[in-house]
Amino acid sequence: MKFNDRAALELANTIVPLYEAKKSPFDVQSCETILPEGMKPKSKEHALYLFYAAIGNFAVDAEIFYGSTRKFYKTNSQYFKPQIIIEEFNEEADDFSEIIRIVNEEKVTVSPELISVVKENLGGRWWEIGKRWWNNSIELEKYDNDPRNIFEEDDTIDSVFKKLDGKRHPKTKIQNGFRGMKQKIGNMFINQYIDAGIAKVKDPENAKVPIDYHVINLTIARGILTDFENGIRDAKITDYLEKEYPRFYKEYDISALNFGKAIWQLGKYSCSYNNSNDACPIEKCEKIIDSSTYFTSGKIVIIDNPRGC
User: Fold this and answer.
1) What ranges in the chain are assigned the alpha helix state H?
2) How many angstroms separate the first and last alpha carbons of the chain?
3) Which of 6, 97, 146, 285 is deepest in the core (most CB within 10 A)?
4) CA–CA distance, 288 with 256 (Å, rounded to integer)
């Protein structure tokens, strides 16, 4: 695989100024920045809301998920408080006896009541969201039940991510960190906190842009990623871009946060192959990814795209 710096720089010089000026197609409010009615920005409630929303925002359309989360918060704000989750949903059940998580050397069984609450209100992969909601509420006890305390005064992007990244010890099986907070979700969470002014780090210029299908789509379509095999698995491309994009940002002094959000929004909302509109500010692409093949088989197939981005 090869990363074409010239193509990446051309794209960055086109879309970053538009994004920073909030000009079309970047003149819409991101779904995670729309808060439940009456919520005070940068408050503990805001921090908890984004924390629980971030760990559930996977394998589902973001607009639908955040819309459901706001509605859920309006009627059930108590379930965005880790103490209440731990106190109310602490019963064991045979049907979920296999859902065991070792936390501080104690076996914890996810409550079926919590799974039911999540399933009815948030949808998506509710069974995994419920496990994350429970496990990460317990993990938050280390930070006085306030996710803002994850960020300390001298923290860097990498030092915060190390706290988030949930890993089990190969022998003891004890897990530290937060369930589901891997590269994509963990970095998305960090970026949202920085963007919202909830937290600060010493090196915001080193922010990691989450690499998902929308970013990969546009990266290939614009000729930034070349010389890869058809049918390559997403993880291999993701691993490569997670190394190359940070190098590119640093070498060319590109804002990782702004470019990352711009390329993601462009790939998700402005691609006529996905949404049949003409909002793309760049010229037509020569190729695009066949999303139906990708989502059904995990394989990437390049096809002609006469309609452009």
Assistant:
1) 5-20, 44-56, 62-76, 82-88, 112-121, 126-139, 157-164, 183-196, 213-221, 234-252, 256-269, 272-275, 291-297
2) 23
3) 285
4) 24
Q: What is the pLDDT of residues 27-72, one digit of tens each?
A: 777 778 889 999 999 999 999 999 999 888 776 667 777 888 888 8
* Alpha carbon distance 39, 34 (integer Å): 10
Say which amino acid occupies 201.
Answer: V
Going by the DSSP 8-state scheme, the letter that residue 79 receives in this structure is G
Q: Is the dihedral of CA 210, 215, 217, 220 positive or negative?
A: negative
Give me the phi and psi of 47, to 5 degrees please: -60, -45
Claim: this prediction has a pTM higher than 0.85? no
- Compute the Cα dihedral for 136, 140, 146, 152 and give only its sign: negative
106, β-bridge pairs:
103
Give the CA distances from residue 238 to residues 29, 250, 304, in Å, rounded to whole numbers and listed in that order. 27, 19, 23
- The SS3 assignment for 120 reads helix
Rounded Cα distance, 90 and 254, in Å: 47
3 vs 198: CA distance, rounded Å: 34
Residue partners of 301: CB distance under 8 A and separation at least 6: 230, 231, 289, 290, 293, 294
On the 0-12 / 13-18 / 19+ scale of CB atoms within 10 A, 292 is exposed
